[in-house]
Write a structure and sequence with these properties.
The protein has about 270 residues and is of the alpha/beta class. α1 packs across α10 and α5 runs parallel beside α9. The chain is globular. It starts with 6 loop residues before the first strand and ends in a 7-residue tail after the last helix. The mean pLDDT is about 90.
């Protein structure tokens, strides 16, 4: 009988994603994974279900770090995690718009890096299809409530159009390299699709603000010589952080279950 090693997990970030992930781990809801510490730049006090420690101490205690704190953490700390021999599960895939960073994350070791699919499905299939040859046309349309898409770089004209809209308003269009940089908390999906396809510039992205978007919607269409694919999802936003979908922490937990060796997973 094979004994499965328990993964000692450290969690960076105690926000909308981290609270759900951390609470589930503290309740031992992921077989083979144990939450041993938390890292956050705010004192958590009694709210923390595990000891709050420094980043450096987390690396000493853990063999797997879950990033649930934003793209900046991936950029600033990702390589350090992997170089220490600790594995890294990334939720903020928008950081992967930086080709040099992505290359370093994929080549730095001995730790291994994993990426969660987050709020969309079908990425496993697109990754498999990629082995048949490049896709000719890949398009992603993300639709969210206007307030969740407002950014400091927007001019008054665009902000007024978004705030007074009675129907859908296109906020930005571009490639999966360009869009997540402009919306660091709202468009990780674009980078995830590009990761599956293998080309940031091949994925065309539209970001749409819609005052009727009570569900966040992501629509992916991909076409190539070997087939056509379409995936569409609609999620409730997280009530504490409407910029992210309620399902995202559960996608992180599913990914963690696969890493920890849970049986019955679709891989």
């Amino acid at each position: 009988m094979t004994t499965v090693k328990t993964r000692h997990v450290g969690l960076i970030g105690w926000g909308a994603i981290g609270r759900v992930v951390g609470t589930a781990l503290a309740r031992r809801q992921v077989p083979g994974a144990e939450l041993v510490c938390l890292v956050d730049n705010r004192p958590l006090g009694e709210a923390a279900p595990a000891p709050q420690v420094s980043f450096e101490e987390a690396l000493e205690r853990c063999d797997l770090i879950i990033e649930a704190a934003g793209q900046g953490v991936v950029r600033a700390r990702g390589e350090q995690v992997l170089a220490s021999g600790t594995d890294l599960l990334v939720a903020s895939t928008g950081a992967l718009t930086d080709d040099a960073l992505t290359k370093r994350l994929l080549t730095t070791g001995p730790g291994r890096v994993y990426f969660t699919g987050g709020a969309v499905g079908g990425l496993d299939l697109l990754q498999a299809v990629r082995s048949l040859g490049p896709l000719d046309d890949v398009r992603l349309t993300t639709t969210k409530l206007p307030a969740t898409l407002e950014q400091p770089w927007m001019d008054d004209e665009l902000l007024t159009r978004m705030r007074t809209a009675t129907g859908p308003v296109e906020v930005m269009s571009g490639t999966a390299r360009e869009v997540p940089v402009k919306f660091p908390r709202s468009t990780n999906v674009a980078a995830s699709v590009a990761l599956a396809v293998g080309d940031l510039d091949a994925v065309r992205v539209r970001v749409v603000a819609d005052p009727a978007a009570h569900h966040t919607r992501h629509s992916i269409e991909a076409h190539g010589a070997h087939g056509s694919y379409r995936f569409e999802v609609a999620h409730l936003p997280d009530p504490g952080n409407p910029a992210t979908s309620q399902v995202v922490p559960y996608a992180v937990l599913r990914s963690l279950g696969a890493i920890a060796g849970r049986t019955g997973q679709i891989l």
